């Protein structure tokens, strides 16, 4: 079905790589529940193992259900290939373990997911890899952090949890000029709103647990990029170093999520913009951070590289952490939870939840306020979300 490769995003998300008539008319792709694969001959096994022909040997490396998911993810992100993993952290780990070795350095944005921060500051150090942190909102600070042992630049945009924005094209151009790889976590924006590879990045990461899966019922990750790079990550980072293989059933669920991704992200974004506007007007709110608001720092970057603001809003209350605690406890529809991208509206306090891995000193150094809250706007009726927030904000004063 090669003609599908030039068709629209939603069409590819639903149809690419699968013809029901070749699978007994089954409209949904079959689920391959097998750990190993038999071969027709010794020679066939050797050809598959050497890469001379396509095929499957063992489920830790690849599965037909997983392969279909990878084909669609690569297409949606505009990459040559993709590899699916058991979680977002598995995607990060498999990538870093493949491209880095003892003595290397990686320059990382100051604001990243809390568990990733621990991997950079504690995990990689155990293997002789040094993470150097810089403010990626300023290209000159990134350039100054690059040394002779630097191999890659790593950042999220919008960043977790404060949604600050990094200019993908500018940082990628800087990296390319120094012969470095650019790695971008695109979990928050999804390929619906932003495609880093088209702006010069080399590798894109996802926690597919979030918007790609979209239903809060799975853990998954993905890496997208050039064919040679992805194959190296599959054969080394996935197969040998982590073994963090995505289960066939989870791949099936993410494929299901992709079918409605464009519709869901549009609804998340529409509702989040309305929420951000409400927060901006409410007297209890000190500041709001949302890529779709002109008042948000970096808005002009979002205008260039994103087609909408996404489904997440970060904000601070005048009353700080005490007011935030009152708000979280007063909300009825929005649930206190650390994930995002689900149909349910979720709210959390990063300093004590997702970013507790940052020390208090690190949070102060990098501008992660104790009073910051992150809201993942769900798919409930918008007026119900707004009413819940109004009531909670009134009680937080």
TrEMBL record:
Family annotation (Gene3D superfamilies): Aspartate Aminotransferase, domain 1 (3.90.1150.10), Type I PLP-dependent aspartate aminotransferase-like (Major domain) (3.40.640.10)
The UniProt record lists the keyword Transcription: no
Species of provenance: Pollutimonas bauzanensis
Protein name: Methionine-gamma-lyase
Phylogenetic placement of the source organism: Bacteria, Pseudomonadati, Pseudomonadota, Betaproteobacteria, Burkholderiales
Bilayer-spanning residue ranges: none
Cellular component annotations (GO), alphabetically ordered: cytoplasm
InterPro entries associated with the record: Cys/Met-Metab_PyrdxlP-dep_enz, Cys_met_metab_PP, PyrdxlP-dep_Trfase, PyrdxlP-dep_Trfase_major, PyrdxlP-dep_Trfase_small
Cofactors that this protein relies on: pyridoxal 5'-phosphate
Modified-residue entries (N6-(pyridoxal phosphate)lysine), positions: 210
Pfam families registered for this protein in UniProt: Cys_Met_Meta_PP
């Amino acid at each position: 079905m090669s003609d599908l490769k030039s068709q629209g995003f939603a069409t590819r998300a639903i149809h690419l790589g699968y013809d029901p008539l070749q699978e007994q008319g089954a409209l949904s792709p079959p689920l391959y529940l097998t750990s190993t694969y038999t071969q027709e001959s010794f020679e066939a096994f050797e050809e598959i193992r050497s890469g001379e022909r396509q095929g499957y040997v063992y489920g830790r490396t690849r599965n037909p259900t997983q392969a279909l998911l990878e084909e669609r993810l690569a297409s949606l992100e505009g990459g040559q290939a993709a590899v699916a993993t058991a979680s977002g952290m598995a995607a990060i780990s498999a990538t870093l373990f493949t491209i880095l070795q003892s003595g290397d350095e990686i320059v990382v944005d100051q604001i990243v997911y809390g568990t990733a921060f621990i991997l950079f500051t504690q995990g990689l150090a155990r293997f002789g890899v040094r993470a150097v942190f810089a403010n990626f909102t300023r290209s000159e600070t990134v350039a100054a952090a690059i040394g002779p042992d630097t191999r890659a630049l790593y950042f999220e945009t919008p960043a977790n949890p404060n949604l600050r924005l990094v200019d993908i094209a500018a940082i990628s151009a800087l990296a390319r000029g120094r012969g470095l790889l650019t790695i971008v976590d695109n979990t928050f924006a999804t390929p619906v709103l932003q495609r880093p590879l088209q702006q010069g990045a080399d590798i894109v990461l996802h926690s597919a647990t979030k918007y790609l899966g979209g239903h809060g019922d799975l853990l998954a990750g993905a890496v997208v990029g050039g064919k040679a790079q992805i194959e190296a990550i599959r054969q080394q980072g996935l197969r040998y170093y982590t073994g963090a293989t995505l289960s066939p059933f989870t791949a099936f669920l993410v494929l299901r999520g992709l079918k409605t991704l464009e519709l869901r992200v549009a609804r998340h974004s529409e509702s989040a913009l309305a929420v951000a506007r409400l927060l901006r007007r409410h007297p209890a709110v000190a500041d709001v951070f949302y890529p779709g608001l002109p008042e948000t720092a970096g808005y002009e970057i979002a205008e260039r590289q994103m087609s909408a603001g996404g489904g997440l809003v970060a904000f601070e209350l005048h009353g700080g952490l005490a007011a935030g605690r009152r708000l979280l406890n007063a909300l009825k529809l929005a649930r206190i939870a650390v994930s995002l991208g689900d149909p349910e509206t979720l709210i959390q306090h990063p300093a004590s939840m997702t970013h507790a891995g940052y020390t208090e000193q690190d949070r102060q150094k990098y501008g992660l306020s104790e009073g910051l809250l992150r809201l993942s706007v769900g798919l409930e009726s918008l007026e119900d979300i707004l009413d819940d927030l109004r009531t909670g904000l009134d009680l937080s004063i």
